[in-house]
Amino acid sequence: MLIEQAVFASAQTLRAQGYQLVSHSPGLSEPETRELSIWGPSHDALLERPGEPSSTNFFKLSSGRYCVSRTTSAGAEYSGRGGHGVYTQFLVVPPQILARFGNNPFAILRAAMASGAIGVRLPIPESLEPLRLLGRSPAVDQALLANLARDPGPAAMATLVQAALACDRLAIAASVAPELLIAGLIAALPVECRTEFSFTTGLKFSPSRPVRIASLGNDPASWRSIARSGVTLLNMDKSEPCGEPRWNGWAGFVAQVLSTGKFSVLAAELDRSHASLSCANLDALSEQVKANLQTSTRSITATEPASNQQCSPPEPVLAEKETSTNHRADRAHLLREKVQAVAEKYAPKSTVEELAEALASQPPEVLELLEHIDDLIFAAIGGDRRALTELEGLWPVVVLQLDEDLVEQSREQYLRCVLSICSEPTNGEDQRPDRALAATDVLCVLFGE
Amino acid sequence: MICEEGNTPDAETCHNCFAPMILARQAQSTQNAPVMFAALGPSAVGKTVYLGMLLDMLSRQPKMLQLSARGGFSVSLQQNTLAALARCEFPAKTPNEPDRWNWVHCELRSPVHRQPVELVMPDIAGEALFEEVEHPRSFKVLYSLLSRCHGVLILIDGTKLQSGSLEEDYFTMKLLSHLSELPTEPKGAWHSRPVALIFSKADQCESCFEDPAAYAQRHAPGLWRICQQRFHRHRFFAAGVAGACVTRTVRGRGQQMVPLRIEPRGIIEPFEWLIESLRK
Predict the structure, then answer these.
(1) Are A84 and B253 an interchain contact pair (Cβ–Cβ within 8 Å)?
(2) How many CB pairs (< 8 A) connect A and B?
(3) Contact flag A208-B18 (C-beta cutoff 8 Å)
(4) Which of A46, A112, A322, B48 suits a disulfide with A117, CB 3.0-4.6 Å?
(5) Is B253's CB within 8 Å of A83's CB?
(6) What does DSSP assign to residue A362?
(7) Cβ–Cβ below 8 Å for B90 and A75
(8) B93 and A81: CB-CB below 8 Å?
(9) How far is A168 from chain B (nearest CA, A)?
């Protein structure tokens, strides 16, 4: 199965002059080419933003295939009237291929870019070949979610999810790059629901190009007329702070995941197949996963009530854990005791006590977050690449949320633990180079290298 | 007003054809339905420049045809065009998206009409017209507009015809053929509606001005024939806005046409003829 492609730009061809579908691969049907010709953005269609203006777009064609496109400013308008040309490359993706990439248009685009298939080609070739994209992508980009949990924050993201689910047409204004926001929104939605969200990240609003999610320009004066077109406007810079339970259903779950940093819980949930799930029946699933999340949190607190107050060195988890809802295991306790003993061996007692004292004064949500970081660090040292990815995203959030002193003390303790693990044989085995490498990776994340 | 679809009172554009709803609201305040004209032609033929200059000239003319804009939006087209020309630039390309077209609603006073005539004219994108001609009903606004308008100004690039290119000839033949096949509206079939055919950029091919009909017969025989056969009320004109043009190369933006001076010729005549034709 192949991905067909087409280029819409300003050019003079034998067929016509001006903005047109200049070239396309042979597998596109006549109705599809007509649909793309009408949808194609023309002169001055890109929103003005700092840097190179561009837009990622996604919508469903009448044929049932999906269109993922990238619009950039390139070349000049063919007729010599001045102004930059607008260049759009369409990828027409069969549903099966989109599903392989987690129904995530951004993942398709990334894969196509990585293969060198996306980019401005001037002069535009007369014929284009269909693409074959290999591989697949995970359901959730945890690093992206971690970044968005930092800025614009869990509250804004949950508001975005709630508004997107509630509105059939939503336009977003935000200081955060809309491409990141919309990518985050897609990543936070169940795979089965993602195709219901057509979007454009950087094209000017046009009722002739209907999409479910669009972004707004910087000029608030233009927003009013858009609102009158029946579009809900969401100003992300004015969303409610986190902590107030204002989000329902799936948005509530997303708020919980982002504020606790448990992206792996979301990833694990979205990795599962949910037959016949759609936005219409998403609430039932969200109630179920929220209950699971609360149960897992309660069980952690019940089994180890004082662990966080004494968490220097932090408590580890099994590297081979299957889902992040299984946060504790017997082997983990054994390993923690061992690590604690090692850390105490290497760290001065006064330092450990200082950290324990500092942690004792932290609120429960911070302790929970640190506990999760512990899990991730030890899983990452054990070779779990997903844990390392999640740590890469989550650690900067932790750094922002905690006092500088506490961060430094935590870093110091983690460093001691990592060093001790690297230097000590594990379960009687000789020191393994891959374990040392994984530990080094963890240190790089913790120290921002 | 264009497609006659129902819309909510606060809608900015028609949900069906994307024409601005302010036209319909303003038209409701007058007794007579507005007259609609359309300036048609392929991309880069000079529709925006022609319309902008025409409106500017008519809005400043003390006698004969006098035109006054109804609503600030109706002044944008002439303002943008004249501002661009004053900077020695041609106005930016009209976007393909119908909701971004400039529409003009104005009141026209002429010696041949007792009462002022309400006039509506859009500045459409040539690419959209091309798609509509190739695949009718691709753009609902164009289908409705072409079905209902009282007359058209069809622009043909005179320089291209002179250089031997037949693209303009073919496109205009397709367009006229498309018009003649449109369903008959109360205003009558297209063969009885006025069609002004204007050779644009005539300042670069002076022979256009001498005898536009003969120029058409010589350089666009297909077009000339279809007009003779199917359109009883047609006339050829020649018009030019820029007195002279040069090409300059702008780094990173390719070649750009620069109008050196503004020397409008033959701008009002086609429009005047259309207005007179309304009475017949």
Answers:
(1) yes
(2) 111
(3) yes
(4) A112
(5) yes
(6) S
(7) no
(8) yes
(9) 15
CA distance A321 to A390: 14
- The whole-number pLDDT of residue A394 equals 77
Tokens of A109: 């685009």
Instruction: Using alpha carbons, list the distances in angstroms from residue A274 to A66, A102, A158, A279.
Output: 21, 13, 21, 12
Paired with B250 in beta bridges are B254
- CB spacing of A18 vs B11 below 8 angstroms: no
ipTM for the complex shown: 0.87
AA letter at A108: I
- Kindly list the residues from chain A whose CB atom is less than 8 angstroms away from the CB atom of residue B127: 16, 18-20, 42
Alpha-carbon torsion A157, A158, A164, A170, what sign? negative
Task: Verify whether the Cβ–Cβ distance A206 to B99 is below 8 Å.
Answer: yes
User: How near does any CA of chain A get to the CA of B19, in Å?
Assistant: 11
Of B241, B232, B245, the closest CA to residue B265 belongs to: B241
* Lowest-pLDDT choice from A169-183, A207-221, A323-337: A323-337
Average pLDDT over residues B258-275: 92
pLDDT tens digits for range A227-260: 877 889 998 877 555 555 578 889 988 988 888 8
Question: A287-296, B10-19, B241-250 — which one is most confidently predicted on average?
Answer: B241-250
* B232 alpha carbon, distance to own chain's centre: 20
φ and ψ at A76, to 5 degrees?
A: -115, 160
Question: Is the confidence at residue A75, as pLDDT, over 90?
Answer: no
Closest alpha carbon to B161 in B127, B196, B202, B124: B202
The label of the residue with tokens 């949990």 reads A149
| CA nearest to B128 within chain A | A38
- Minimum distance, in Å, between the CA of residue B13 and any CA atom of chain A: 7
Residue A310: per-residue pLDDT: 32
What are A5-58's pLDDT values in tens digits? 999 999 888 888 899 999 999 999 999 999 999 999 998 899 988 788 899 999
* pLDDT score recorded for residue A331: 41
Rounded to whole angstroms, the Cα distance separating A256 from A197 reads 22
Q: How far apart are the first and last CA of chain A?
A: 41
Of B10, B13, B97, the CB nearest to A42: B97
Smallest CA–CA distance, residue B15 to chain A, in Å, is: 8
- Between β-strands B35-40 and A170-173, what pairing exists: parallel, antiparallel or unpaired? unpaired
- Tell me the average pLDDT across A183-210: 93
Which amino acid is located at B31 in the chain?
Q
Specify the pLDDT at position A351.
Answer: 62
A312-321, A365-374, A398-407, B234-243: segment of lowest average pLDDT? A312-321
Distance from CA of B62 to the nearest CA of A (A): 32
β-strands A54-60, A66-76 pairing: antiparallel
CB A200 within 8 A of CB A57: yes
